Amino acid sequence: MQSSAQFLQPPATPLPSKQIQGTSVARTLSIPNQCSKFSRRELAIGTSSSLLLLLGSQAIEPLNLSRARADELPDKTEQEEPSRKVDYGSDQNVTKRAFLEVSVDGEPIGRIVIGLYGDSAPFGSSRFSNLVSGAAGVSYRRKEFVRIMPNYVQHGGLRSYGVDAELAKSTGRTMAMDNLVGEWEKQSEVYQGTKNVARSVSIIVRDPSKPPPKMKLVARGGKLEIDQEEVGKDVNGTEFTIALKDSPELDTSALVIGRVLEGMDVVERIGQVKTVKENTSSPYFRAAKLIGDKRAVVAERGFNRPYSKVKITNCGLME
């Protein structure tokens, strides 16, 4: 019986050492004495675990290799980073400096120093400097800011008729637009993006909305009546704006001639003055505007007008 049993059970032949060192599965299968102690279920579980470990080790190798290759490649996000936005005027040369001293209801609030771009906007900066210095026969002295918007403040400039026009004629000058429109068109073509950024000073060359009219007493038929003072249909190149924030809405009507160098706190103080609120959502206003009622036009021109008198008390050029 022993001989038959030995004949039925072949002697265990150990595997070569190279196969033993191959994998954990080979190590398990090369020791029959230990495997005989396990059931078929335990052997199957052990074999599956060993195969999973083998496959996992093979999968990790290419993953680590791909990570190493990725580390060697240049970072595209750094190369493709978009260029930083450069505000218009940051690279403009300041050729002259002008100052404006401002008061609110007679109380001085400070001085604004403006740098003019004589190289990029020669006609606009020349017009502004002549009006600030008084070389044009008239100046911005004692003239008011007429609109205060969330993004900018607007000065009313000089009138195209009356005393201002007569004084300008006495020096051989007129309120003609000269080359301001052409300069504005060139500026719009050459420079892309927003031109009227925060701190920008611009001359209005196109009328986005007419300034509010003033009321006056006139004699008609032996009676005094209140009538609306006539205003020029076109702008005369003397109104200017100072941007509190980036104001792309001004790019279609204003020529940038300079920027605020000092006194931006004074401009912000002007921007805080209370104004007439817009009432365009009122059904009465809409109906009046629709039928062309003159009162609606007058009311619209009064929107955003300051309740207080914001004046330039003194102005001029700086050495």
Automatic annotation (TrEMBL):
<feature type="region of interest" description="Disordered">
    <location>
        <begin position="1"/>
        <end position="20"/>
    </location>
</feature>
<protein>
    <recommendedName>
        <fullName>PPIase cyclophilin-type domain-containing protein</fullName>
    </recommendedName>
</protein>
<dbReference type="InterPro" id="IPR029000">
    <property type="entry name" value="Cyclophilin-like_dom_sf"/>
</dbReference>
<dbReference type="InterPro" id="IPR044185">
    <property type="entry name" value="CYP26-2-like"/>
</dbReference>
<feature type="domain" description="PPIase cyclophilin-type">
    <location>
        <begin position="99"/>
        <end position="317"/>
    </location>
</feature>
<dbReference type="InterPro" id="IPR002130">
    <property type="entry name" value="Cyclophilin-type_PPIase_dom"/>
</dbReference>
<dbReference type="Pfam" id="PF00160">
    <property type="entry name" value="Pro_isomerase"/>
</dbReference>
